[in-house]
Design a protein that fits this description.
Length: 165
């Protein structure tokens, strides 16, 4: 029996994978905006925000988990830093409807670990992506999740009102 000794950490992307991700982002963005969004909208949405320093508008395709009027987004990348501070305004295209929202970013704490654990239970492929150890029942071990997500972020978005079309 072999043991995976890879240290727990967020997934990293090569330059070619980053380029492919950008291309995929363009395609997914177009589909999410189209009448053909269907099943894709059940897992992904568009998140739009202004850069903290540049004030440029950024729009990303992100996976989400919904609980009532709150959406949770996990991120191993640094874009979440633009959402630090109180009452950070964002716009989301959620199931082909645009909403205003307020985002709150968490980094490397228990809130992040708990959010990633919920995401891993819903999308088990994340367990392997983050090299998280599992228990005898196949569930992610909480301490391993904490270790794997110490450099990651969780963004909570409270939906406000639907934007007029």
């Amino acid at each position: 029996m072999t043991v995976d000794t890879t240290p727990a950490s967020p997934p990293t992307l090569s330059k070619s994978a980053l380029a492919m991700t950008k291309g995929l982002n363009v395609i997914l963005s177009a589909v999410l905006r189209s009448p053909f969004h269907g099943k894709l909208s059940q897992r992904f949405m568009l998140l739009s925000f202004k850069g903290r320093k540049s004030r440029n508008r950024y729009t990303l395709v992100v996976g989400y988990r919904r609980e009532g009027e709150v959406l949770e987004v996990i991120s191993p990348r640094n874009w979440w830093k633009n959402l630090q501070g109180d009452n950070t305004q964002v716009t989301v295209l959620f199931q082909r409807r645009w909403y205003d929202g307020i985002a709150e970013a968490f980094h490397g704490d228990e809130t992040v670990a708990a959010g990633y654990l919920r995401a891993m239970q819903r999308f088990p492929a994340l367990i392997g992506m983050y090299h998280v150890e599992v228990d005898e029942t196949g569930q992610p071990k909480p301490e391993s999740v904490r270790q794997a997500t110490r450099a990651c972020a969780l963004v909570r978005i409270r939906l406000l009102s639907e934007k007029n079309a």
